[in-house]
Design goal:
224 residues, globular, single chain, Spore Coat Polysaccharide Biosynthesis Protein SpsA, Chain A, 8 helices
Length: 224
């Protein structure tokens, strides 16, 4: 087996636009880079991941050992399709596609997700809202089309079943919880996350009143 992890990273100063009313551009850029570096370190420590590739227009920010793939600017799903095709040409037999904003992700969670996915050929990790998709694992990467965007989890379920797969749905904490909205930042302050606590401690939380919903994989499968 030759298992690759594939991420897509837009220019950091353009990331996390939904936090624009809460964080400055410089703060958002710092947040994007901090989470991205954490995900790379986690993948490097995971036993089941052989190589890591990143689709980005900024290859100069990637550390040594990470394969840079060109982003043609055609959108996330096309970029992932292009990345998948490139990795197949490099000999990939398994593919883990995941987002770069998972600051609680742990190596053991990555390994567990991959091992579970091998049982059926496909695993999906919904986000904590139950509507988005934070990770897809494939043992047949050429037999799947990506549908990241609105209601992507439901679309990925439909795609899997149309291809004859019954995917494993698995979303341990590190896969399920990302940071997209101010409420997600509040959640980190409430739980005193080690990675981001020093970065978040100086920010005002007076406007952050919402909380992420309790996550249930079953709920996500039924309502995502």
């Amino acid at each position: 087996m030759n298992c690759w992890a594939l991420l897509a990273l837009k220019p950091p100063h353009l990331g996390k636009s939904r936090l624009g009313g809460t964080l400055s551009r410089r703060q958002r850029e710092h947040l994007v880079i901090t989470m991205f570096e954490h995900v790379l370190e986690t993948l490097n420590a995971a036993l089941e991941i052989d190589r890591v590739a990143v689709i980005t227009p900024n290859p100069e920010i990637l550390p040594q050992g990470v394969l840079a793939l060109e982003d043609r600017g055609a959108g996330l799903n096309q970029a992932l399709d292009d990345g998948r095709d490139a990795l197949l040409a490099f000999g990939a037999t398994e593919l883990l596609v995941l987002h770069a904003d998972l600051p609680w992700l742990k190596p053991a969670e990555v390994d567990g997700f991959v091992r579970l996915g091998r049982g059926t050929g496909l695993a999906l990790a919904p986000d904590h809202h139950g509507s988005g998709t934070n990770a897809v694992f494939l043992t047949q990467p050429d037999r799947f089309d990506f549908h990241f965007g609105n209601s992507s989890f439901r679309q990925h379920l439909m795609e899997a079943r149309s291809r004859g797969f019954e995917p494993i749905i698995n979303a341990p904490h590190g896969f399920a919880v990302d940071i997209d909205e101010p409420a997600d930042l509040q959640h980190y302050l409430d739980t005193r996350s080690g990675l981001l606590e020093p970065f978040l401690s100086s920010w005002s939380t007076t406007r952050w009143t919402a909380r992420p919903k309790h996550f249930s994989p079953l709920h996500a499968a039924e309502h995502g």
